[in-house]
TrEMBL record:
Keywords: ATP-binding, Flavoprotein, FMN, Kinase, Nucleotide-binding, Transferase
GO molecular function: ATP binding; riboflavin kinase activity
Organismal lineage: Bacteria, Bacillati, Mycoplasmatota, Mollicutes, Entomoplasmatales
Any Pfam family: Flavokinase
Protein name from the UniProt record: riboflavin kinase
Nucleotide-binding among keywords: yes
């Protein structure tokens, strides 16, 4: 099993990890390109006699690619990677801050070598690009392959956008899921007996608007629940995923949850009264329960 580390560089905590070589790539959209890079990673690590690390710089706990943290870890386990590091930080175009980030990664996390592709750049990772790692790790940075050669996983995105979650799982062997922290909403659902956990997504999820059967994992209590979730645009024009967690009725504002989407129930429907909304939500919850019961019987 891969050792999983969520590290905030502001903590400045020395973790006393074994020396490792870290692969930096677009793991939220992991495909055959990362598989090839991992083969190279293992070969180099074996020659150097050090551990293998997958290094994911991030500025958010919410995942907007195909894979969330859980699925990235699942894939890392399949490839027998020693450790996965999610590095939370906002880096700016500041020479002194870049120097600090370099020393933090190298010394606090014991990442002595880097493997990265040429022309690597993710918009939301700011300056964690090929030039950053080459300039600071110098001869200890290996540039292999070219990020421009990475195929865009349009087929997988199309399956998610068209709610074809079964075929997505057949191809990838994993369910689509994303993570986020619960924020406070208008509590309209609570008033009519269907409280919801709300996640405001700062970027678009790769799914269409609508209502879905979900499995909700609440990390703080290590429990999973069935849920009926809706992805929609609220009155503030924010993209929101709100889910009624079935047989669960606790305040979890600020808690991190993972939402696994199993099936789309329906498109959005305009309602004209609270009574109509209540009936609609009851129908959605009943559909979710019946769907799971049928699956358990087969």
């Amino acid at each position: 099993m891969s050792n999983v580390i969520n590290y905030n560089n502001l903590s400045r905590i020395l973790l006393n990890l074994d020396d490792s070589i870290a692969l930096v790539s677009d793991f939220q959209n992991w495909n055959e390109f990362e598989d090839r890079m991992i083969i190279k990673l293992k070969n180099v690590a074996n020659k150097l006699g050090i551990k293998t690390t997958i290094f994911i710089p991030t500025i958010s706990e919410t995942d907007y690619g195909i894979w969330n943290k859980k699925n990235i870890v699942n894939l890392a386990n399949e490839h027998k990677i020693d450790q996965v590091i999610f590095y939370i930080n906002r880096i700016t175009n500041n020479k002194e801050e870049k120097q600090y980030i370099y020393e933090n990664i190298k010394n606090m996390l014991s990442i002595k070598n880097i493997l990265i592709s040429d022309n690597f750049k993710l918009d939301k990772s700011y300056y964690y690009d090929t030039d950053f790692f080459v300039n600071f790790w110098k001869e200890n940075c290996i540039v292999f392959d070219n990020f421009l050669n990475k195929a865009n996983p349009l087929n997988l995105y199309n399956l998610l956008k068209t709610s074809n979650f079964l075929d997505f799982k057949k191809i990838t062997k994993l369910d689509y899921q994303f993570s986020g922290r619960v924020v406070e909403g208008k509590k309209l659902g609570r008033k009519i007996g269907f409280p919801t956990a709300n996640i405001v997504t700062q970027e678009l999820l790769p799914i269409d608007n609508g209502v879905f059967i979900c499995e909700v994992f609440i990390e703080a209590i290590n429990e999973s629940y069935l849920g009926a979730g809706c992805y929609w645009n609220n009155e503030l024009k924010q993209k929101v995923f709100e889910v009624n967690i079935i047989n669960f009725n606790k305040d979890i504002y600020g808690w991190l949850i993972d939402i696994k989407i199993l099936k789309k129930i329906r498109d959005e429907v305009k309602v004209n009264s609270l009574d109509q909304l209540k009936e609609l939500l009851k129908s959605d919850v009943d559909y979710c329960k019946n769907y799971i019961n049928r699956k358990e019987e087969t």
